[in-house]
Amino acid sequence: MAHLKPPTVRPSHMAMTRRIGIVLSAAALTACGPSSEPTPAPVKAAPVAPNTQGPMPAPPAWAAPYLGKIITETLPEGSGCIGNTEGVPRRFAGPPAGAEISGWGWDSVAKRRVERILLADESLRIIGAGDGGVDRPDVLAVKPEFQDGKTGWVGRAPITSGLVIAYALVDGGKAACPLGEIEV
């Protein structure tokens, strides 16, 4: 499990509760030791991701109804997803400037990879989105029960610094399940 940097701004109570749940889940997985299900090695992000000249690509069309809304007021919290928010592989010089964020996700209830990701800032406002289906053989190597090597996801958000929280859309897009967070 990747170590997450604490946010520089005091999070809301709901965000703090969500973070505590993520930390406790990570601690439980760590306590299981090597004889339990291992977690995939996190993708190592460069301390400063390379800057790509030009604008950040537009968000996926399906994300338009969500952008700008508070995630907890828009969707109920779903459960049954596992995954991680692991890196910032690229930054976009803009305009608009932004960051590409990557990770992996699995919907344990539906028994399939995560297909859609929403990205929220520290205030839980939805600022970006992304899609799943990215090849991640490293995840499949440690989670063969997934039976799908494309559990990776990539999203983009118009943010150049601060906390980004990734959520998987689950339950047919009717709920959002937290996957993790990363400091951009």
- Class of secondary structure makeup: alpha+beta
What can be said about the biggest beta sheet? 9 strands, mixed
Structure annotation, total helices: 3
Radius of gyration equals: 15 Å
Distance between the termini: 17 Å
- Nearest-integer average pLDDT: 81
The tally of beta strands, per DSSP, is 9
Q: What fraction of residues sit in β-strands?
A: 25-35%
Order of helices and strands: HEHEEEEEHEEE
Number of domains: 1
Unreliable stretches, pLDDT < 50, 5 or more residues?
Answer: 1-47
What proportion of the residues is helical, as a percent range?
10-25%
Give the overall silhouette.
globular
Write the layout of secondary structure elements.
Layout: H1 13-31, E1 51-52, H2 71-74, E2 81-92, E3 98-107, E4 112-113, E5 116-120, E6 126-134, H3 137-142, E7 152-157, E8 163-170, E9 175-183
Parallel strand pairs: 1-2
Antiparallel strand pairs: 2-3, 3-4, 3-7, 5-6, 5-8, 6-7, 8-9
